[in-house]
Design a protein that fits this description.
- It is a multi-pass membrane protein.
- Pfam families: MASE1, SpoIIE.
- It is found in: Cell membrane.
- By secondary structure, this protein is of the alpha+beta class.
- The chain folds into 4 domains: 159 residues; 124 residues, no CATH class; 96 residues, PAS domain (Beta-Lactamase, 2-Layer Sandwich), CATH 3.30.450; 228 residues, PPM-type phosphatase domain (Phosphatase 2c, domain 1), CATH 3.60.40.
- Helix content is 52%, strand content 18%.
- A 5-stranded antiparallel beta sheet has the order 4-3-7-6-5.
- Helix 4 packs antiparallel against helix 5 and helix 6 packs parallel to helix 11.
- It is elongated and about 140 Å long.
Amino acid sequence: MLLVLAVVTAITLKLQPSGLLTPPWSPASGVALGLGICFRRKYTWMLALAVAAVNLPILVWLGRPAPLAAALVAALAVEMVVGTLLLRGRQDSRPRLYTPRDLARFLVIALISTTLYGVLAAAAFYLLGNPAGAVETLQTGVLKHMAGMALLTPLLMAPTHRKQQAGYAETVGHIIWTMGTATGVFIFNHTLLPLAFITFPSLVAAALRLSTRQLSLILVGVASIASHGSVNGLGPFAFDQLGGPAGVALLQGYQLSIVAVLLTLSLVVGSERETSSRLHESEELFRKSFNSSVAGKLMAVRTTNQWIVERANPSARDLLSGLRQGMRNLESLMGVDAVARLSESADSLVGDNARITVQLADGRSLNVSMAVIGEKPEGTQFVLHFHDVTESERLRQLELEEINRAAEIQRALLPDKLPATPGWTIGAYTAPARQIGGDFYDVRVHEAAIALSLGDVMGKGMDAGMLAAATRIALRSLDPDSSPSVVVTRAANILDGDLRRISAFVTLVYVRVDMESGDFRITDAGHGLHFVVRTASGRVERLESRDMPLGLGDRWRETGDSLHPGDMILLVSDGVLDRWGGSLEGLEVAIAQFANRDGVTPQAVVDSLCADARDMVDDSDDITAVALSRTA
């Protein structure tokens, strides 16, 4: 590019008319600025020195005094640096020329940098004893340098990547038409008739059909022809007839005007064409997505009293057969109740979209998502996206019925009513987190003994409920007169294969109380939530668990103690613990508060403990508690 700069400078100065002290235009300014924006910012000053070094010997060779030549190349270097830094800003990439705003910014920066050059060059002429050169530079310097930048620098800016409309043959035709018109106006026209406007139709046509870069090349060609004719006394801007400075000013004004107008036109048309293309692509993408969707899609307008279908995809026509018959009223297609449900949801949209399930007049169920997409004079336009969920709704209902039946069976396995035993009172409470819980309890009275058990199966839901029922049945199948450790061990042996196969476990506490003496024996399989309330002292004693749950261990021990009149033994699940903050201390405080009341019954204790806890936190686990109190 430095070689190009040298050649352009030499040709421009060599062809300088004898009546002018400065060249009629300055393409070197455009080449120099283009050179500056093609390299990284850190090389700007180095490039400026190179530009000065290349131009200095040429100016001296063509007759400029050395001091003046040095001052002029210094001004050119400053012009290049200022223009480059302003165009680049803080970016290292080439400045872009995408929009009219980019062009306006470029022209303003060109005006600033060329004005600076004009001031510096005029000062150099004046200080070196050439006031006429200073005056001519002030009159024409800014226009000449700005025209050079406007014509050549856009060729080196980052162009838009828009597809041009013209093919190869049409492009060649535009070039021939424009160059031919310019030649006729500026070369073969020997009068001062204002015929420069004749070039505009061909240039406008090129701006509409060619790329911005191709248009810039054509403008350079037109400017070169106009400059050649004007220098040689031809065309509407002939220097020998208008006078040098006046001719230069008119010529450069013409060149700047065609650049500003035609590049703006090219960028505007290109931008609109690109926007139109994107809209077309977006519309095409929407159309393909709309028509190929496996779900039904409708575009419908909701008027004051009805829904009218505007567009439907093939899946919608399969789901709503009336669409194939030309029906467009949504109430006729779906049914009164379904459309009423849609209207109700449309009236209460949150975020302009909603998802509902509606039942059609023929009994089918559709899951519908709806969204507002615009307003029309006749009403609001919606898009409806739906699919048939009749079968899944039927299966869900069957599953719900099965769960309810399983819950009924599980409830039937719990004690129907607590046994009445002289000298003893019993209380129990259970509430699953879902319809089917993993907690269970049992109370058995056999001769002079009471057996209490409470278990908690890992997990919740149907699987946990089935395992809880199996564990309770296993315990019930064993002799209630056996010791707790024997009962737990035998139950574990019954369940062990199933527990290991499904990688599950059960925590369990089993207590056998002698109703005559009050002595009790207890075996804990990893549960650890059983308490003895001593009413005489008000203390709450927790019996620690040292053995593993069923499914994880193979040996369970038993311990013993005695209940005195007024004492109570309480078994709870971890759901109760969670509802008292997950803290044993908090649970013990609550137990003491509820159990140490005058005349309180075990049922009142478990009801208060579980009911108050339910109010404190969300239901996240099963709640079960069973209590036995010695009254005499």
